[in-house]
């Protein structure tokens, strides 16, 4: 997504979140109903600034339901007064930052140039947070005289639950109160509607490619026609989900010039389609739920990220070996069809996807059970934030040991200056001694006359 569109997106989102928060906080009837309910804990999403404010108003501990893994530093604000405070360890030497592109495939074994970019990107997000988010959040909190920096307010957020699995994430240290519970939406497939079951079954050994690119960004008609032309050349059937805005009627579908192997639907039960044995691959925007549903069912992915966390997800699809990446700008070029063909014709992608499926399924409790257990744990402990590490209690200077570095640097400077002064004093004394010797004609060492060699 171009930078201008990115900024417009965040500006619009910030306005939406602020307006909705003001509406809620102005609705005294709704607030009274929530207070009267007598809840023990609140579950909310940290990204909206109203979560911390509402927890304060209701006087409740709260659990942050975070829909993706921690993406540092984008989801931890370094500026005082922000509600986005995950404070996970951010090892930029091997943890790719949000939207780090690099000069080659992104893995956790970053090249020198990728690490340089990683460093620059991490500080870009600190600046972008100040430019885009912090002013809006500060203005909202000032309106309600709310200070999220108070220790009692920081301790209200006792835990974060994320529906992700280590098998598909970049590995890194995380704090004890951040729980990866696994994908709560992916699960065993249910029977398909009769028309879809017939379509999948009729594919036989040819199999089916599922195409679904989400609903947040719509493709233009030229892109859709180019995709249809590429699908028509594939050896398998294609089940293509498009939104009603993209194909409002049968005439719009007909205008795409679909091949005989392609069927368009405006809705499909994605998880159930992915579970079908005749599904061979998935062309996806790799939103977090789509990626995990593909992993759960062991299906290889052609990742075509568009915005948000999708490029980061696509990097992991490639790094973990269960798919390839294609750009929306490649639609209409040979590279688009070649990427799909590679996944369909290369068994190693399917094998890698099936291995990933084993990793996220091999657990005693389901992700839903895991999440429920932690919610019940927070209730049983009365919202005690005992799992939180001290980062959230520390200032930026203390948290990053800048005061310690300053003192160590000062001590080093003092030691260097002292050594320099001592050396200068020693040299000056030596010069005085030498001058004294030269003035009275004395020698600094005994005279020495070599002995004559015997004849």
Automatic annotation (TrEMBL):
The keyword Transferase applies. The chain crosses the membrane at residues 404-427. Keywords: Glycosyltransferase, Membrane, Transferase, Transmembrane, Transmembrane helix. InterPro entries: UDP-glycosyltransferase, UDP_glucos_trans. CDD domains: GT1_Gtf-like. It holds the Pfam family UDPGT. This is G5399 protein. The gene is g5399.
């Amino acid at each position: 997504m171009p930078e201008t569109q990115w900024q417009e997106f965040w500006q619009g989102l910030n306005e939406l979140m602020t307006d909705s928060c003001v509406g809620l906080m102005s609705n005294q009837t709704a607030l009274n109903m929530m207070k009267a309910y007598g809840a023990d804990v609140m579950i909310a999403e940290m990204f909206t600034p109203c979560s911390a404010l509402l927890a304060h108003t209701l006087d409740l501990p709260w659990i942050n339901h975070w829909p993706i893994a921690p993406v540092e530093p984008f989801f931890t604000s370094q500026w005082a007064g922000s509600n986005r405070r995950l404070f996970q360890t951010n090892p930029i030497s091997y943890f790719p930052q949000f939207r780090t592109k690099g000069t080659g495939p992104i893995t956790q074994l970053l090249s020198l140039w990728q690490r340089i970019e990683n460093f620059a990107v991490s500080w870009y997000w600190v600046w972008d947070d100040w430019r885009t988010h912090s002013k809006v959040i500060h203005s909202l909190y000032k309106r309600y005289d709310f200070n999220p920096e108070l220790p009692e307010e920081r301790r209200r957020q006792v835990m974060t639950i994320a529906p992700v699995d280590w098998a598909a994430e970049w590995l890194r240290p995380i704090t004890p109160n951040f729980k990866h519970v696994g994908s709560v939406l992916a699960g065993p497939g249910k029977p398909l509607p009769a028309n879809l079951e017939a379509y999948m079954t009729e594919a036989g050994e040819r199999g089916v490619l599922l195409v679904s690119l989400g609903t947040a960004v719509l493709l233009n008609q030229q892109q859709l026609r180019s995709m249809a032309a590429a699908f028509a050349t594939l050896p398998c059937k294609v089940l293509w989900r498009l939104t009603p805005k993209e194909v409002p009627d049968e005439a719009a579908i007909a205008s795409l010039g679909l091949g005989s192997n392609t069927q368009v639907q405006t809705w499909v039960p994605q998880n159930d389609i992915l579970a079908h044995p005749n599904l061979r691959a998935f062309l996806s925007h790799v939103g977090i739920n789509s990626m995990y549903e593909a992993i759960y069912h062991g299906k290889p992915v052609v990742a075509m990220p568009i915005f948000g966390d999708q490029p980061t997800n696509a990097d992991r699809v490639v790094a973990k070996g269960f798919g390839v990446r294609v750009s929306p700008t490649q639609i209409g070029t040979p590279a688009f069809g070649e990427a799909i063909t590679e996944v369909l014709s290369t068994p190693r992608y399917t094998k890698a996807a099936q291995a990933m499926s084993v990793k996220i399924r091999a657990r005693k409790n389901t992700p839903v059970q895991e999440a429920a257990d932690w919610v019940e744990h927070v209730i049983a402990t009365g919202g005690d934030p005992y799992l939180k590490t001290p980062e959230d209690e520390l200032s930026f200077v203390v948290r990053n040991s800048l005061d310690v570095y300053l003192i160590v640097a000062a001590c080093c400077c003092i030691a260097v200056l002292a050594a320099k002064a001592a050396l200068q004093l020693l040299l000056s004394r030596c010069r005085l001694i030498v001058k004294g010797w030269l003035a009275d004609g004395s020698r600094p060492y005994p005279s020495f006359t070599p002995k004559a060699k015997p004849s």
